[in-house]
Amino acid sequence: GVCQVNNRGYCKGCFRSREERTYWHKVDNSVKQQIVKACAARQKRVLAKKRLAAQQAQQNSGQVSFFDEDE
To answer: Is this model's pTM higher than 0.90 or not?
Structure first.
């Protein structure tokens, strides 16, 4: 696939930085494993922020969603 970057330079899909994407084919597997772990942590933070923002928006709207994944 083709990476699409956010305003901080991280891919919106794989969460790799610009530098990580540039050197991906030049690094060994142990470095790739470290990058993948970092990407998983970045993804977790992004999803947590999105979840929090959605919860706050729902609380502010006064509407109940019947389609929340958590329930």
So the answer is: no
